[in-house]
Structure formats: C-alpha cells, structure tokens
Amino acid sequence: MADVPEVTTSSPSELLAAGRRHLAVRDFSSAAGVLAKACEALAKEHGDMADQCAEAYLWYGKALLGLSREESGVLGDGMPGTGNPEDDEENEDGADDGEEDQNGEAEQNVENNKEVEVEKIEAESTTKEEEPGSSTVAAGDSDEPGTSNNGEANEESEVNLDNEDDVDNLQLAWEMLDLARNILSRRAEEAADGVAARALLADVHLALGEVALESETYDKAVIDMQSCLELQKELYHSDDRRIAETHYQIGLANSLASNFEDAITHFKNAANILETRIKTLENPSAAKDDATVKKFSSADPFYTVEGEIKELKELLPEIQEKIQDMMDYKAEVRPCDCIEETREMLRGMMLKEKNLRHVDCKA
After folding, report:
1. In a domain? residue 103
2. pLDDT tens track for 193-210
3. For labelling, which of 129, 223, 271, 284 has a CA lying 20 to 30 Å from the CA of 164?
C-alpha cells in the first residue's frame, strides 16, 4: 500500500482532504480514523446537523463501508472452505488417507478435546448471559438500520448482519450516510446550493445502496440506487460514465434479488452509455469541450482521454458477459426449486465484484 504522510493538523478541511487521500490509496482504516476526527471537529464547531458536516459524513460513511468490505474479505479468506476448491479436495483426500492410520488413543484424545471445547463454550455463554452490558451496544437498545426503537423491522432501511464486527462498521456507515442524506435533502431545496447538494446527495444514495448490497437487502439497494440515478439524470449529460456506473450497480442489485429482466435492462443501459461515451471521446472536438474531461483533467494530472477510452473498452466485454449470464440464469430458473442455488452463484459473482470496486476521489 502506498505510504501516506501522517496528518498532524486539526483543521477540519485538511482532515477531510487527508481522509480522501487515504481513500484514494484504499487505506480504509486510516481514512476512517482521520475522517472521524473531521466529523467530530465539524460537529463540535457547527452542530451535528449543520450543512458543513454533510460532505464529511459522506466520506466517513464511504470509508467505513470500505473498511467493512476489507474486513469481510480478510475473514472470508481465513475461514475453512473459502480457499481454492482444488486445494480443499486435496486436503480432504489426505484426511481420508490419514484416518486409516489413527488408533484408538488418538480418537480418545479427540473426544477429550471436544469435551473441553464444550465446557469453554458453555462458560462463555453463561458469562454473556450474566453480563448483558458487556457489548458496546445492548441488543435491545441498538438502533440498527431497518430497526425501530421497539425492535420492529423497517422495510425501508432493513440491514441483515451476521457478524458482530461487521455490524459496527456497516451500522455506523449507514448512520453517517443517513445523516448526510438528511442534511443534503434540506440543502437541495435551497436555490443557492441546490445543484452542488444534489450532486452530493446522489453520491449518498449510491453509497447507501452499496451498504444495503453488502448486507444482502437487495430490494432496498435497488431503491436507493434508483434515487441516485434519478438525480444523476437531472445533473449530468446522458453519456456520463457516472450514470453508466449506477445502471451497472442497479443491475447487480437486481441480479442478486433474482430480478433478472430488470438486471438485463440496466446492464444494457450501462453498455449503451459507455459505447456512446467512447464515440464522444474519439471525436477530438467533442472531447475537447466535454465537461467531464475538463473536470478529470484538472483533478487528476495522470488523466488522458486515450486512457479513459481504453478503460471503457475494457469494461464493455465484462458488462456484455453479465448480460449473457442474466439471460442464462433467467432461462434456467424455475419457480421455487432452484432460486436459492442461483442466488448463491450470483453471490459468488459479487465477491469478484468487490475486488474491482474503487473509491472515486476525483470529485
């Protein structure tokens, strides 16, 4: 990972800039730490719901989302059954051969170990029951996304979380992004700051959709991402790659929700936009006057039109492959009998997508 200079300043604006630099090199842990300080400083100076806090909340939420994904990947690689299938088969064969050589004494040792483990588990369970306040947030008092204060599920913001460590990061990411959404929704109605606020609000909706995607609440992810798409269509040119990216993300969410027809539609929209974008960039006069090109050129000293064309052309085959996959899944799926199997295949596809995602810090 690239080295990032340690931040010694307490200025909120400089902390925010430093946090975004950490995000640019995918150092999510450092980004979360720095951006948390920025949020704290801004909230202390202006108030929790002040307009000045919105952007810091957004980037802090993105950092926490990235940290959650990173930790999930590390945990997944370390768990049995998550490695190379061929290696697993070889290990199983070796285990079968070794079983023939085990004697009764070894089997007795295994039984003894199991008894010890059971005793440890029972002791831990008793401790947890006697100390309900030992966790950071009590189960009955936690305000998880999708849960009201009385514990009833809220369909509009439901997040299912299996790992306690992930609960902390995804929960906090959702809370920060939800704060940003509330502030920016108010700012978007103000004429003086409307356009800039709507652009940030679109980013917030997309990030909220990604949080829902990580927590496997796919229908909620689609709703949030659709909100992002509606704003982007108002703000950007029809061939803007940000619109294509959102179509692609909505396609992924729909595919995991087994809405294959909708997934195909959005994947096709993403491909069509990228094809149009390539044609625009290949026209020298059009590329010269393109607002997005000007923006990227000023923000990134390494940006080139040729580089973007190359990148977009490399993305198209991947999207076409997704379209074909969805058509195949749609043809194979029969009501009730193999829907869960199909979802498992799509979740495997999502694991590959996580490795391809990157944080856009050019804005």
Report:
1. no
2. 788 999 999 999 999 999
3. 223
My answer on whether 173 and 63 are in the same domain is yes
Residues 156 and 264 in one domain: no
CA distance 179 to 160: 20
Pair (196, 245) in one structural domain: no
Of 232, 234, 305, 315, nearest to 270 by C-alpha is: 315
d(CA 241, CA 309): 11
> What letter does residue 69 receive in the DSSP assignment?
H
| Residues 6, 16: Cα–Cα separation, whole Å | 13
Same domain, yes or no: 215 and 240:
no
Q: Are 152 and 281 in the same domain?
A: no
pLDDT of residue 340: 55
- Domain assignment of residue 308, given as a range: 236-363
Does the residue 330 lie in any domain?
yes
Q: Please, what is the angle between helix 305-332 and helix 291-299, to 10°?
A: 110
| Cβ proximity of 38 and 62 under 8 Å | no
The answer for residues whose C-beta is within 8 angstroms of residue 241's C-beta and 6 or more apart is 273, 274, 277, 292, 312
pLDDT tens track for 42-51: 999 999 999 9
Assess contact for 183 and 193: CB atoms under 8 A.
no
Q: In the chain, what are the helix, strand and coil shares in percent, each to the nearest 5?
A: 75, 0, 25
| Residues 6 or more apart whose Cβ sits within 8 Å of residue 276 | 238, 239
pTM: 0.68
Q: Which of 245, 161, 166 is nearest to 206 (CA)?
A: 245
Burial class (CB in 10 A: 0-12, 13-18, 19+), 61: buried
Q: Is the domain of 274 the same as that of 354?
A: yes
Domain total of the chain: 2
